[in-house]
Amino acid sequence: MDKPKARREENTLASALTPRQIVEELDKYIVGQFEAKRCVAIALRNRARRQMLAEDMQDEVSPKNIIMIGSTGVGKTEIARRLARLVDAPFIKVEASKYTEIGYVGRDVESMIRDLTETAISRVKAEQTEAVEEKARESTEERLLDCIFPVPRSLQRQPRLQDEEALDEPDEEDDGVLQLPFDMGPDVGAEAEEAREQERERYLNTRETFREWLREGRLEDKPVEINVKHQNMPFVEIFSPGGIEEMDINFKDMFNNILPNQTKKRRVPVSEARTILMLEESEKLIDMDAVINEAIQRVEDSGIVFLDEIDKIAGRESRHGPDISREGVQRDILPIIEGSTVTSKYGAVRTHHILFIAAGAFHVSSPSDLIPELQGRFPIRVELKSLNKDDFKSILTEPKNALVKQYAALLSTEGVEATITDDAIDEIAALAFQVNESVEDIGARRLHTIMEKLFENLFFDAPNLEKKHITIDAAYVRSELSEIVKDQDLSRYIL
């Protein structure tokens, strides 16, 4: 291994978060579930460790995929989503139950990798757009000025360069021509050039004045006429069992090459024209080939697929033989997780080092009901605990995006200051736990329904309230949610 490569890999590991730091970051948004956070932190750190190995060893080290076992609302999806956001990795959440076996109507499992690639391309393109934003803004400003104050026709007619050179250079054949020693009168060409120069100076000064007004926002409502690219795409219907993507043809680009680009004039305000022109200028500055290559590399090296509801396809056999919606889907998912090459309209994408995090409640089935080959591809299994009253109290107050902070912030937009006391939080947590125990355990999602019911009247009356300071205590919580406590059929109020 050469020294520059070794130094780059060392920097890769040094810049990556340690497992302890990853858990600390996840703690800011997710309460409890330390074992699950620990597992995903180790799996993420192992990716950086793999980058330090020799190339032949890197291909041999496969990601340690994880199965999260737990009921809905305990934080499975949130852990995976926050993990991907933490390391800025391509991430997609899919439902295992929506896929069908190849040969049947429905989505094939390879579409999850194509969707992940699309997500990565959108993210890289957004980054590139931000990088060229300054240049695009300058070009957009010049185009807007051309629309607001176009160049006069008199300044557009310029003598050709070769004609000017011909006038400057003496003709060799005219060496013997007699040169008159006296003045022939005023030079008409010089006067015209001087007048043109003065007009050009006046035009540039006026243009700079408009530039200042444009930057100050004084021309935002002024209507301008711009040329917008317009192309009518022909309707093409293709019947293919695997979809158009398996044909590895990008019909949009193909028709763009065949059909000429057309433009149409639109009369819009300057504020809207700036957005349209900014998009066009950014597209010119972005190298889409580089974007696609970077996106595919990110997918292959750091992509994360969260495969939810995997317990719905865990049944291996039925009384009438193999079930196409279960065992067939498992066998189709197996090569994707094991490592294969998926064809997309952007090129081939290898799935050998994509991290798969599966999740399911497993109330009826168990992970052992998966086919043995698929079980072996998920070596790490972690069970998430159900949430209790103390967990609900922590969820309401501790995370950065705590529900109490969210609802107070929403009311503050109406000028209403809401103070939620500690006994009110205890009452809300106790009620959420009681409803989960008596009806159905939907985890932390129960807090959303209860908080929405609690603040329903406040949100409705907030614009007309004369009293701008509201204190929400346990008595207020009981008065607002008394009907829920009395009625046994809680589904009437909380779904």
Q: How would you explain this protein's 3D organization?
A:
The protein is α/β, with parallel strands linked by helices. It has three domains: 3-127 and 295-383, 3-Layer(aba) Sandwich (Rossmann fold), CATH 3.40.50.300; 133-155 and 190-285, no CATH class; 389-484, Helicase, Ruva Protein, domain 3 (Orthogonal Bundle). It contains 22 helices and eleven strands. The strands form four sheets. A five-stranded parallel beta sheet has the order 2-5-8-1-9, with helices on both faces. Strands 3-4 form a two-stranded antiparallel ribbon. Strands 6-7 form a two-stranded antiparallel sheet. Strand 6 and strand 7 form a beta hairpin. Helix 18 packs across helix 19 (445-454). The longest helix has 29 residues, at 188-216. The relative contact order is 0.13. Residues 1-11, 159-167, 234-249 and 318-323 have low confidence and may be disordered.
Widest sheet, order of strands: 2-5-8-1-9
The CATH topology of the largest domain comes to Rossmann fold
For the record, the count of structural domains works out to 3
Mean pLDDT: 78
Question: What is the overall shape?
Answer: flat
Please estimate the helix content.
40-55%
Q: SS-based structural class? A: alpha/beta
Q: Using DSSP, what is the number of strands?
A: 11
* Major beta sheet summary: 5 strands, parallel
How far apart, in Å, are the first and last alpha carbons?
59 Å
According to CATH, what is the class of the largest domain?
Alpha Beta
Rg over alpha carbons? 33 Å
CATH superfamily of the largest domain, called what? Answer: P-loop containing nucleotide triphosphate hydrolases
What share of residues are in beta strands? 5-15%
List low-pLDDT spans: 1-11, 159-167, 234-249, 318-323
Number of distinct helices: 22
**Second rung of CATH, namely the architecture of the largest domain:** 3-Layer(aba) Sandwich
